[in-house]
Amino acid sequence: MALSPLLQKPSDQSLLVAGIAARLAVFMGAGLSPLRAWQELVEPDDTTVEAELIREVNDRATSGESLVEALAQTTEFEDDAWRVLAAVHTVAHHTGAPLGNALWALTTALHERYEAERAVRATILAPVYTQRLLMGLPLLGLLLSAALGVDALEFLTSSGLGWIATVSAVVLMAGAWRWSRAMIREALPGPSFLSPALDLLAIATSGGASPEAARIRVDDALSRHGLNAPDGHTLDKLPALSRRVGIPLRALAVAEASWVRARAKADATERAAALSVKILIPLGMLVLPAFVIVGVIPIVFALLSGAFGQGAGERLW
Predict the structure, then answer these.
(1) Distant-in-sequence contacts of 71-74, Cβ < 8 A, 24+ apart
(2) Do 74 and 56 meet the contact criterion of CB atoms below 8 Å apart?
(3) How many C-beta atoms lie closer than 10 Å to residue 102's C-beta?
(4) pTM (whole model) above 0.85
(5) What does the alpha-carbon distance between residue 317 and residue 313 come to, in Å, rounded to a whole number?
(6) Which of 65, 156, 211, 233 has an alpha carbon within 20 to 30 A of 93's alpha carbon?
(7) Are the C-beta atoms of 152 and 146 separated by less than 8 Å?
(8) Which of 117, 93, 55 is nearest to 221 (CA)?
(9) What digits encode the pLDDT tens for the residues 179-228?
């Protein structure tokens, strides 16, 4: 279960699809055709979701659809790891790239991607848990008041001063929640930080396509399979660099993709370290005053009522 819509748990589908890609690559390396390799993945007694997807791909492919189209249709609404697998087939088919080699490369990329996702999530967990813990302080204040025999809820709802305190506490808590959520959102990487575009570019150029044609195929595949695209400058600068230094574009794209994933992990660590401290600012400035309003002020008024008599307490209220 995810802690928050902002902090989704890494999907195990990346590892599962990596395993499927590796098996397909092994089958093709042994001389099987792509369609036959997919047929060898079918396990009749397996009732898991992934087994059903594999069977659907094979059913579509054997009923007349091309394997590329069968994969695209079957994975259209699945986890993006499946859609990346379909995109690899699409790019390899249209550029003539060896599909077995492309699937081996995909296996490595998905493993790196999964590790990057785990690193991003792990480094951000500490400030998220800190936020959730301290957001519960006002409730703790109510429990503390009850433990001391003070009916804080009666004070907060039975007088003008109590209602002012209640509204103030609610406003402070809402502000703290929005402020801390904005900080967490800022610390998380954008949706395209692990885009498969560079990996697909490496596959496209390994088939002998020119950089321009490869770029078009990659853009088409990203759009066709609903995958995130990185900043266009990232893809535009590599062909020029390849020509300038005489390095194959495929090698540059593979190195750049690995570097992007490594940088995502490093950046997440740095942002999380800063967030662990910064997130205490809204919690200290807004949550602690709300705790005082809800948990301390009712106790103070109860003590004053006991010290000066019920009438004095009621006048104060």
Answers:
(1) 72/224, 72/225
(2) yes
(3) 26
(4) no
(5) 6
(6) 233
(7) yes
(8) 93
(9) 888 887 777 766 556 678 888 988 888 888 788 888 888 889 988 998 88
